[in-house]
Amino acid sequence: MTLNTSNEFLPKVERPSRYLGGELGAVCKDPATVDISMALAFPDVYEIGMSHLGLAVLYQLLNDIDWIAAERVYSPWPDLETQLRASGDVLRALESERPLRDFDIIGFTLQYELSYTNILTILDLAGIPRRRDRRFADLPLIVAGGPCAFNPEPLADFCDCFIIGDGEEAVVELCSAVRESRRIGEGRGALLTRLSRIEGCYVPELFAVSFGASGQQTAITPLRDDYRQVRRRFLADLENAPWPTRPVVPFTAAVHDRVAIEIARGCTRGCRFCQAGYIYRPVRERSPERITQLANAALHNSGHCELSLLSLSSGDYSSIEALLHGLMDRYRHERVAVSLPSLRVGSLTPELMEEIKKVRKTGFTLAPEAGSERLRQVINKGISAADLVTATSAAYQLGWRTIKLYFMLGLPTETDADLDAIIALSAQVKRSGKGTAGGADANVAVSTFVPKPHTPFQWEAQLDVAETIRRQRYVRDGLRNKKLRLKWHEAEMSFLEGVFARGDRRLAAVLERAVDLGCRFDGWRDHFRFDLWQQAFTEVGIDAAFYLRQRDEDEVLPWDHIDCGIPKAFLLDERHKAFALEYTPDCRGGVCSGCGVCDFETLRMRLVENFELSAPPEQPVLPVLVDGEEERHKVRLRLAKRGKARFVGHLEFMTAIHRAARRSGLPVRFSQGFHPAPRISFGDALSLGIESEAELIDFELTEERTPQCVATALGAQLPPGFHVLDAQALAPGAPSPGAAIVASVYEVTLAAPATGLAERVAAFVAATTVEVDRPKKQGTVRVDIRPAVMAIDVTAGRLRLTLRKGSPLVLLAHLFGLELEDARRLPICKVDIILND
User: 417: number of CA atoms within 13 Å, CB side?
Assistant: First the structure.
């Protein structure tokens, strides 16, 4: 007997759909037809990375250029890493399965400091030396960008260059530079010099750093007179900026599984702790008409049923009420929900809350950040307790049952009195819902303040672990007395985030040692190993707490050579105003704050002036009613799952079909009630790793369609590996696939005769009971598998099983003497089904 060795790792990992590729919207170009290939690397697991919109923007942008091929790679979960290391195989891109080291460029997205170990792990698994000075010219150029790149120094020894700021234009210029350099045969040094001429491109090799006896950085020395500082790259106009209208639609559920449209970039509220509020200035808005065009295309091409309007504060978008109302009117009949994930107390008008209520019926989240009025003045939050309570009272009255409140611990000048204010304000919020229908509750969450570069608080101290835990417990106990719950972020994780957020190049050695000790997925609570990090710092001889100290105002900061567009003098002035409790108003109101980011010509605030949306398309004709009910038509399809599609789980398969049905435009009937669902019925779950030629799906329609029409429409929208084989019309009251199937028939292809198989089959058929151990999450259970088996037939090169119910894997493991996971590697196919007469 020979096991199926294609995709041999997939049966052995927890969620194989992370590694399949071939999703709808994925692009796979022939490397021979392009000049530059770039692997877009996200240093976290697939379902996190698939929710990151920056990577999605670059993926479509680059693949729309005929001479560039962009592919994706995500951090493999530890189970796959173990398999790769044991086998000696290398990490490959999803689309073409090419080894990463064969690409011209690998571009990492830097969203979170605790993902840095995953970057080194990806390089290790790709067979690429970690440090840039050990890589030869024939290896990929390692590039990184994203918010964490505004202090690139902890990764400066690993990356050849960084893109600072908006990447849409810069990444194309980078690819063009690499293309030209390769054409004329330049060496790596000449290439880096060429890249340094791109605005926003930081080449660490062209700067030297030095440190004093106290441990402080004393200098950042440019090695070229014409390259002394790197100014952030700006995208002047968001209106015509690229956006993914053909999104890659994952098989597995992503963290944010929806269409998202960036309605604005930048924020000028001026919260002094918020890095995004400074590094993404100025505010640039998309017009309602453009937002609608992008949303229409992305919804049509993806099959998603939720549209999310994104910005740092969506409620600040000019006339957000008109936009939200217009989009909801447009999509209501398509059953597409419209949501605003980022809301600010100061932007919540009664009209906006009324609109939000129509689509948001669960939690309502607000972020006061600080409990006391004084501390909110320090951070320039610009809202009062009265503003907050007015908003929460209105939310409770509109029907929300739970308010979620987010605060920060350890903000500059915070005392226990400010912690008491968090407790009191949270209780006040809960009381604001007293007497409303259904009761009122509030959940409170706190995170630890981490000073970030390029903010007025970049000089401040961060709490150590012990003090963070003390304050968390103080707030927890106080809230418990008010019958409120608290969630918090682990103190040790915040500590490490703070170290790398304001770290320097010396941390490279610590990072390498932590990876060697086994640190991975540090942003995941179940994988974070603070003890290993402590060991790494000790072995390298670096005091981690040194990086959490308060910085002197005249001290050289590791990121001083990175120009975010806002002068250091402005940030210092804001720091002084914080301690004087002085408020800096939002310059959207017309008074310039003098932050220095705008040139008032090309680079300036761009706010929407025309708030009107064009009239929505004509609404669909209402379904025909028969005796007071919708007309009902039923069509049954028979589908195949082949190749890699066999590793798509049952719930993932159902989601793929639902999305395909939406894209097809079929008039699928929906259930009634609070959460209408499409009336699509499936058969029993097929075990992961088994191919099928006999998956039944029933569709209820509100309009009559021929079976062939339904099959053609759905088949055109299916991802690779799924095929419609047959279609037939059914009576509306016909039993569902699960009720109609009497038995399923499976075949196993035998590449060579299996010794003793015929005897084991004969013994099984002759037995009245066959008990085996079946694995469960909590251990194993003893089960009798004989009653489920109707027939077993062994012929030359084939084993055929007919089962009344259940998976064939346990039976095959018994017959072949295999472990269950090894049985999953057999070439098994569900070839037929037996239906009720």
Answer: 5
